[in-house]
Amino acid sequence: MKIVVVTTHVPFVYGGAEIHAKQLCLALQNYGHKCEVVKIPFKWYPAEKILDHIFICRLLDLTESCGESIDMLIGLKFPAYYVKHPNKILWILHQHKSAYELWLHPEYGDLSIQPNGKLVREAIISADKKFIPEAKKVFANSKTVAERLKKFCGLDSIPLYHPPLYADKFYCGSQQGDYFFYPSRINKMKRQRLVIEALRYCKQPIKVLFAGLPEAEVYLKELKKKAEELGVSKNIKWIGFISEEEKRKLYADSLGVIYVPYDEDYGYVTLEAMLAGKPTITCTDAGGPLEFVVDGITGFISEPTPQSLAEKLDMLYENKVKAKEMGKNAYLKYHEMKISWNKVVETLLK
Amino acid sequence: MLINWFSPLPPAKTDIAHYTQRIMPILTKISQVKLWTDDSNVIPSLQRHVVIYNVHQLNWRELNKAELTFYNIGNNPVFHTNIWKTAIRHPAIVVLHDECLQDLFGAIYKQEVNGKQRFLSIMASYYGPRGYYDAERFWNGELETEELAIKYPLTEFAVENAIGVVVHTSNLFNKLKDKLPVIYLPLPYLSKRKIKKEFKSKKNIYKLILFGFIGKNRRLESILNALATSSYKKYLQLNIYGEIWDQAYQAYIEELIKKYNLQKQVKIHGFVSEDELDKAIFDSDLALNLRFPTMGEASGSQLRIWDNCLASVVSKVGWYATLPKECVEFVSIENEIKDLHRIFAELVHNPLKFYQKGLNGKRYLTTYHSPQNYIKHLLEFSQQVSSQHLVCKYLCEKTANFFSSLSFNPDEHYLRQIATAIYNLTV
User: What pLDDT score does B413 carry?
Assistant: First the structure.
């Protein structure tokens, strides 16, 4: 079959969503299909731009290319998943979060601070309710995403997990290190700030390695300044961009992984930690990671407060044997879940 | 449910403030209400609901927290400029109190940089070349606002960005019903007067009353003329309550009273307490509630007259012309003084007729102007109405602008496809 994977792309931003689309395309190609990722650029501010993008997506014609039919369209993200096609499957990474779970959020809700935000929000909800059901099948990136779709739009979807990039290359190091690893884009929703604030309450000499690029340099400066003010700069290392190989090594040698985003859709980091045989510390409001972390068994689930997070960091630090055991449990759990691209392709194309 | 309510508030000298005050006790029983105002001078009973805002620094997140937002918009720029400026940026439900809004927009655009160009462009857009030409004359001082207002009311412009509109007159409803979601709800009034009025068959003096904010449109000059020239002058007494528009006009009226030798018949009381005014209305025999020109408003004063079981005389124009003849007496614009003479004569010869009209008005008020019904239908309408027509409008304008920037005209078939795509997206 000729299949297009349609997604949106914010120029100069590269993360999980981009990896997801690329990996899906490769998986489909491995099955013998012809596949292309079609990326639609997206800008979400000012709010009325969103209406433009919704409309543009509805106008696009991906039913054929150069006179030949495109047999299937797989839509991944808003508003790309509005593109019409008679054989459309949706595998929703997330809806437009600012219109849903982040609406009115005092820190992350950017749509609700705009004068016509409510109008645009209603347009988004209306479009989602109207056009998502056009698809022959609707899958969601995770139970978290499926639950949101049901809660806000009354629409059913099937959670479908997929492996992180280079899943087969992760390993657990022979030596257990003394640092916690937090690889992720640096932005407010990933809550590196929460970790910095927690370090101040730690009783043990906790060390944290933050890997990843900031979405805005000024925000990284803010975080570093915060660390200085709290006197925990020496506990933190900002290592910036790292290669996939370097990342796997840092996972492998870590004591554990911290991943405390706010209401994450899926969370590759959790799965990568599991593949590396490491426990993950996450928070009660982290969203996707909670589908994989079992409190006290494969990691810890803390309240999203610095004090509670500090307590969990100390607990893991103080009991390295337990940390190793939790890591093993995490690795076994991942494999029990049988997450694979084969399963993804078979499910999508069934 | 949380509701944002933008309105002038008492003691602001507008009936829209009183309207808000009347419905608040019922609205606040069923929802949490935030009263948004740019004036910190608010009566104590409403203080706890008040949010003071600065139109240049609005907290959009706070506004977005509410399920419903209402903007009360009328013709007076003092009270409605900032409300309208908020409404065009944050679309919601407009409660439109006036049909003619030239005073409002004339004042707004005279304050703005490039206001003239913007105003002329709006007038051209809604009324074509004639509108543009007369707008220019108005701007240059060759035309008065009143002349512009009747021909070019700018009603549709006032609600251009509204999700839905609530109106209080059937005229306004008919005007807007094909253009955007609109509902007609009779102006609400909480009936206070429980005592039934007694009829007295013979009186030496019949009391006339005129009250409220008294501008030239209240026809006071005609009334004084009619009183002075009436054969029944000695049986009539006119009491004027409230505020006369400005000192110059008040001085002019006082001169007229002297000129017509009406010092015994006419008394100007000025502002009195609400209870005192209600008593004065109740004790009167006929209210004079003339309005010309009218801005298309429904009259809260009329409802107050009915609540006090009092007959009234109204101008046969606008909303007043739609009132049931069993409840009011009409005067025509063309024969005001002649009609007033007739009515004065009838009052003296057949006071029972007017007594009956007063009772009819009371019955009409309690049947059709119930605040509970008003709130019920207001909320039902507001919760059901969709904002999608605004999205449709936005996309149509954007598409039109795009095509107008091209050097060729797209064919009809293609335009139809675009129109269908917009329709399917928004309906």
Answer: 85
